[in-house]
């Protein structure tokens, strides 16, 4: 099984960015531990702060991966283009958010990803990525 993880803007700074909300671990650290838990899964990871690059990556993996885990970060709440890209590809996308976006500012309650995603995991910290992996395995 091949699973692609795509992270959007500012998630390259996890570990130092607002640790009270997003925790103390960098994504690279977390990704290493995730790979160790699932030896049989082939993971790839992509992060960008640029909207078009996230769309390009959805196109690049969206016809070959078995599952995509997407944290579009702030673009979740603004990007019609990323929402449309999910409709364009074959691979199912699970939307994840580290924080509970519904317990935060009103603008974080809107998502252009959710209507096009297979499912949504929010608010369990970095564990949302593992929970998304489990949901692909359970399929
Ligand atoms: C986030 C939530 C978004 O509202 C925010 O813009 C992020 C991170 C999360 O993982 O909790 O950058 O997607």
The fourth-level CATH homologous superfamily is Dehydroquinase, class II
Number of helices: 5
By CATH, the architecture is named 3-Layer(aba) Sandwich
In the CATH scheme, the class would be Alpha Beta
Strand tally is 5
Number of domains as seen in the coordinates: 1
Low-pLDDT runs:
none
Ligands in the structure?
1,3,4-trihydroxy-5-OXO-cyclohexanecarboxylic acid
Provide the succession of SSEs. EHHEHEHEEH
Major sheet strand order: 2-1-3-4-5
The value of Rg in angstroms is: 14 Å
Distance between the termini: 12 Å
SSE class? alpha/beta
Q: Major sheet, described briefly?
A: 5 strands, parallel
Mean pLDDT: 97
CATH topology: Rossmann fold
Helix content: 25-40%
Q: What portion of residues belong to β-strands?
A: 15-25%
Can you walk through the features of this model?
With 139 residues, this protein is of the alpha/beta class. The protein has one domain (2-138): 3-Layer(aba) Sandwich (Rossmann fold). The chain is 34% helix and 19% strand. It contains five helices and five strands; from the N terminus they run βααβαβαββα. It has helices at residues 19-22, 27-37, 51-61, 80-88, 127-138; strands at residues 2-7, 42-47, 67-71, 93-97, 119-122. The chain has a five-stranded parallel sheet, with helices on both faces. Helix 3 packs parallel to helix 4 (80-88). The longest helix has 12 residues, at 127-138. The radius of gyration is 14 Å and the shape is globular. The structure holds 1,3,4-trihydroxy-5-OXO-cyclohexanecarboxylic acid. Residues 10, 71, 73-74, 76, 97-99, 101, 108 line the site of 1,3,4-trihydroxy-5-OXO-cyclohexanecarboxylic acid.
């Amino acid at each position: 099984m091949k699973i692609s993880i795509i992270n959007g803007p500012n998630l390259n700074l996890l570990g130092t960015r607002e640790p009270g909300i997003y925790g103390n671990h960098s994504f690279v650290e977390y990704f290493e531990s995730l790979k160790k838990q699932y030896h049989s899964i082939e993971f790839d990871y992509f992060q960008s702060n640029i909207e078009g690059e996230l769309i390009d990556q959805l196109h690049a993996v969206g016809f070959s991966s078995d599952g995509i885990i997407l944290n579009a970060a702030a673009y979740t709440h603004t990007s019609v283009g990323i929402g449309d890209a999910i409709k364009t590809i074959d691979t199912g996308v699970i939307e994840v958010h580290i924080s509970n976006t519904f317990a935060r500012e009103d603008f974080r309650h809107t998502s252009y990803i959710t209507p096009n995603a297979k499912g949504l995991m929010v608010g369990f910290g970095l564990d949302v990525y593992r929970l998304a992996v489990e949901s692909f395995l359970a399929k």
